[in-house]
Amino acid sequence: MPNDLKLRESDDIQGDVIAGFKKDQSTLLFLKFEDAARARTWVKRLAPRISTTRQVAAFNSAFRRARNSSGGDDPQSLKATWINVSFTYEGLKVLTGKEPLPSVRPGGTFEAFKQGSDKRSLGDTGDSSPENWLFGDGKGQTVHAVVTVASDTVADLHAAVTEQREAAAQAKVVIVFQQNGATLPGSRRGKEHFGFKDGVSEPGVLGYDEPDPQKPEYVRGKPGTRLIPAGEFLLGHDRIGGITYDTPPDWAVNGSFHVVRRLAQDVPSWWAQVAVQLKVLKKAKVVPDEATGEWLAARLVGRWRSGTPVATCPNADMPSNALSADDNDFGYRNDPEGFITPLFSHLRKTNPRDGLLEAPGAEPLPEKPVMDRRRIMRRGSPYGAPFDPASEGPGGPDSARGLLFVSYQSDLVEQFEFIQKAWINNPDFPPGRGRKPGPDPMVGPTGKVAFESPGATTELSFSQFVTTEGSVYAFAPSLTTLRHLGDGRLTDQLPSTVRPTDAFLPIPDMQREKGKSWYWAYGTGGDGAVCRTISIADGNEHNDLVERPDRPLTTWPCYDGVSKVDAILPVPDEQRVNGRSRYWLFHSTEGRQVYRLISIADRAEQGLDPAAAAALDRPDRPISAWASFGGIVQVDAFLPVPDMQRVNGKSYYWLFHTLLGQQVYRLVSIADGSAHNDVIERGDRSLSLWQSLAGIPKIDEFLAVPDMQRINGLSLFWVFHQDRYRIISIADGAAHSDQVAVDARPLTLWRSLTA
Asked: Kind of pairing, strands 402-409 and 381-383?
């Protein structure tokens, strides 16, 4: 095995995420903590039992070798039982006794995690509504943790589950629900209840799977299986990029978001509607006379029952060809209209591969990076007895059966939710068609689909026969973080250890005083939002110091209710007026950004009482109160136009915010006077127009270099982005030419921000 497959050796990553348990028998226990102290003890005792990537990868390799040497039979002597655990946001909150994420970016994955899947508008309406769920409804069925147990045999699984149930009872951990899953028997092995092979199209992982020597973008020995960067499944690793991502906290590194959904399948009704819609197609004379229900069902799915792709074998299944059953080496580039594999088919809806067009006749979007960044790692399993219309017991038409959908991903919004909402449920995907393709007829909502054939489009109607009966968003932490959770914390760092670059407030009467400029630097740590006093000296080195250590914002009345400072903007004509200076402070509460007006007294840093030093002059208002903020969800940062401050009664700013997953900027002005009328001077533009910001996906904050403002027509600014910073220059004049003055450097060079 190549030495660079380092992820295979990880004892910090839970084993199901990228290695995969791949067991015939599994049980998921959905748990609720009744006593926080006992729950932490339960975590401590569970941690040594958690299966790691190294363990699972080694077993899977040995199992595969043994099966290959035995002609395809499972080796009876190789058995293992694996355990993993994940926690909901509320579960982390109980274990730590505080908010795990004091503030989150609106629209980001951590907001989705914090809200929970019951509040995420995933198309779960009617019979699928959360109030009908068996678990995860966010009300009476609160879930704090999910324990996954998987084994090769029923007996071993039963023993392990019994052990976990007893451990939970001892710790006053309530089992809200138990979900069993098992590979279907006989000829149905490896298939879901509608009868089609499942789990064929899983991606490979860079650093875990061996690349093909001839095609390094693919997995060796698995033609068509693309290698995806590990950061798409594990937080803290390299990602594909191109869209806005949340920066994960340190405790999330090597962890993965865990989606679990119980999807009930009405098998007889689904096949009945296939038969009805086949008659519609035959009446329209758009399918061969010999077309059967199997023929149409294969097109709804995108594969035949055996797993053979319709794209490569459009006329008949190849059940005896084992290679065809695992075939991933195909695409849709030569079938842009969906004449062979319909545009609405389950396979094209969930992974369009190389056949997605923004509009008919356009060039297909590339798999790398457009498709690759939407991949998820699926670990699902059927539950319930196979359908048997003659059975009076298990297997009968009314027996509970379906798919336990399980996936791991590093971004709930841009991966799982995007696939579910923008692709599966969306009747207008793929976009730009004359007739909307319709929703996914296999797992999507009730709707009409457009069956395309040469010279004709035939409308078919499909009801929804997959019902959501439970759903949970959880997080599978690293083993390191899991051990910390047993001690009631998320990291091994002190709660006050933060990198305070959320926002800066220049202390108004302490700028360029005796060769120093003083600032309050805001950051977020384990105890919530804090403020640190720092100073920056004039001169080439701009030596920086911590003048006063972190103080919780809760000690200042003007910050009441602020869990994270997003941005601060000085009121331009109200600086040092009658001994006070005013600022607009932007922060988020209940998932939306608001702003308030605060004032700071001169000498506020010199021992004044907090209530006198800083005052709340006006309480929170929605940012929609700003006329120039139209279409903005959250302000990220302001950059004052250096030569356009208080010019003819106006001050100009570049305002940076995030729009449709990309950070953009606009030019706004603020007038002097009590109303401070604001105007959009120029609409949103791409960051790519700034040559000095090249390569930065998202700017956190700007800070003016205090002694380098408007020197020989240039002004310098520090630009902070994640754990790095650079210095840029902006010229006076209409063009405001910008360039990089100092290339990106690690933030650790700032003593005051990393102390």
From this structure: antiparallel
Yes or no: say if 93 and 488 are a contact pair by the CB < 8 Å rule. Answer: no
On whether the CB atoms of residues 16 and 84 are closer than 8 A, the answer is: yes
C-alpha torsion sign, points 84, 87, 88, 91: positive
Q: 724-731 and 714-721: which strand pairing?
A: antiparallel
| Integer Cα distance of 41 and 432 in angstroms | 55
Find the radius of gyration of the CA atoms of the chain.
Answer: 29
In the chain, % of residues over pLDDT 70: 97
DSSP codes, 351-377: --TT---SSTTSPPPPIIIIIGGG--E
Cα–Cα dist 255/477, whole Å = 4
Contact indicator for 526, 502 with CB cutoff of 8 Å:
no
The two tokens of residue 657 are 């915010």
Q: Residue 470 in contact with residue 261, Cβ under 8 Å? A: yes
Query: What 3-state class would DSSP assign to 60?
Result: helix
Integer distance in angstroms from the first to the last C-alpha of the chain? 42
Any idea which residue has 């973080």 for tokens? Answer: 481
- Neighbour-count burial of 573, counting CB atoms closer than 10 A to its CB (0-12 exposed, 13-18 middle, 19+ buried): middle
Query: Which residues are CB-neighbours of 380 under 8 A, at least 6 positions away?
Result: 181, 198, 199, 403, 404, 405, 406, 407
Task: Please tell me whether residue 370 adopts helix, strand or coil conformation.
Answer: helix
Query: Could you report the per-residue pLDDT of 68-91, keeping only the tens digit for each?
Result: 887 767 777 889 999 999 999 999
Residue pointed to by tokens 């789990």:
199
C-alpha 723/C-alpha 745 separation (Å) is 9
Q: Which two tokens stand for residue 705?
A: 């270099």
Q: Which residues pair with 565 in a beta bridge?
A: 587
Question: Which pLDDT tens digit goes with each residue over 499-533?
Answer: 688 999 999 999 999 999 999 999 986 567 889 99
Query: Which residues, 6 or more positions from 503, have their beta carbon under 8 angstroms from its beta carbon?
Result: 521, 522, 565, 566, 567, 568, 701
Give the pLDDT confidence of 133-157 residue by residue, as tens digits.
Answer: 999 986 777 999 999 999 999 999 9
The 8 Å CB, 24+ separation contacts for 335-338 are 335/311, 336/360, 336/364, 337/452, 338/437, 338/452
Q: Is the dihedral of CA 304, 309, 312, 314 positive or negative?
A: positive
Rounded Cα distance between 371 and 415, Å, is 10
Query: Which pair of structure tokens corresponds to residue 398?
Result: 């009314």
Cα 754 vs. chain centroid, distance in angstroms? 27
Other Cβ atoms within 10 Å of 136 Cβ, number: 28
Question: Inter-axis angle of helices 36-46 and 154-170, to 10 degrees?
Answer: 150
Comparing CA positions, the residue from 475, 448, 474, 467 lying closest to residue 459 is 448
669/66: higher pLDDT:
669
Cβ-contact 526, 489 below 8 angstroms: yes
The DSSP-derived string for 251-307 is GGTT-EEEEEEEEEE-HHHHHHHHHHHHHHHHHTT-S-TT--HHHHHHHHHSB-TTS
Tokens 């869990």: give the residue: 563
Cis upstream peptide for 431 (omega within 30°) = no
Distance CA 636, CA 503 (A): 10
Q: What gap in Å lies between CA 166 and CA 24, rounded to an integer?
A: 23
312, 330 Cβ separation under 8 angstroms: yes
Return the structure tokens found at 566.
Answer: 């997003």
> What are the tokens at 256?
């993965």
738-746 β-sheet, strand order: 701-704, 714-721, 724-731, 738-746
304 with 326: CB under 8 angstroms?
no
